[in-house]
Amino acid sequence: MVEPILRLDGLRKRFGGLAVTDGVSLEVAPGEIHAVIGPNGAGKTTLIHQVSGTLRPDAGRVVFAGQDVTALPLARRARLGLARSFQITAVLPGFTALENAALAVQARSGSSFRFLRAAATEAALNREARAALDQVGLGPRAGMPAGALSHGERRQLELAIALAMRPRLLLLDEPLAGAGPEETERLVGLLRGLRGRYAILLVEHDMGAVFALADRISVLVYGRVIATGAPAAIRADPAVRAAYLGEEEAA
Ligand SMILES: Nc1ncnc2c1ncn2[C@@H]1O[C@H](COP(=O)(O)OP(=O)(O)OP(=O)(O)O)[C@@H](O)[C@H]1O
């Protein structure tokens, strides 16, 4: 089997008496969209926080690109290519879409443009920023202040900012939250276009989107993974239906 880009190994996290992450192990392969679903309060957000580095697990390991990153803070993980998008407000509303993306390119590249003259640096930053915007279909809006973008376009910009970091794994925490039907369709199309090029760990409540996008799905219930598999297998899994999908009538 291909070496996974992300491996979670027996992660545990308690809040008071509650085991919110109760021995979670899962793997994300390069280029795979791996969705984590589960009822409200199952521990999905807590899990994502432990992957991004916002929360330290009580036990277990987070291995990213072959490196144990369990003790590394968020910023160090981000530099290794673990990018989190959505549910964070990375967008600066007074700056244009292009400037927002260029800031992300600059943050990633650090001083690697230092040998260039100022004008050449700016051109290089803008070129990469524009490529990130084009990837999410926001090229025509490059000159718009981010604050003037629609809700859906802002989500596209958040994705462009994450892509400008050249991630090896994208953590997407409810990318469709608050999106209307048309925006949802556009964002799902965009995410589908990223399949195979980026590994994605996706937490999303929209089951239609999850089943349309995911290569594999892990189902989390009370902090435990009760099943991992391809969408068809998950849909047919009696334990999953009993615990979750049956009641949501999503299968
Ligand atoms: N900082 C905290 N302190 C105490 N309890 C917490 C904390 N964060 C989360 N919890 C509890 O842990 C459980 C899991 O929460 P979490 O937000 O991870 O679930 P979730 O699956 O993301 O839920 P949702 O689908 O509603 O977003 C909940 O019972 C929640 O109340």
From TrEMBL:
Keyword hit for ATP-binding: yes
Keyword Glycoprotein: no
Domain named ABC transporter: residues: 6-247
UniProt GO cellular component terms: plasma membrane
UniProt-listed InterPro entries: AAA+_ATPase, ABC_AA/LPS_Transport, ABC_transporter-like_ATP-bd, BCA_ABC_TP_C, P-loop_NTPase
Pfam families: ABC_tran (PF00005), BCA_ABC_TP_C (PF12399)
Keywords associated with the record: ATP-binding, Nucleotide-binding, Transport
PROSITE patterns per the UniProt record, alphabetical: ABC_TRANSPORTER_2
Gene Ontology MF terms: ATP binding; ATP hydrolysis activity
Database matches in CDD domains: ABC_Mj1267_LivG_branched (cd03219)
Protein name: ABC transporter ATP-binding protein
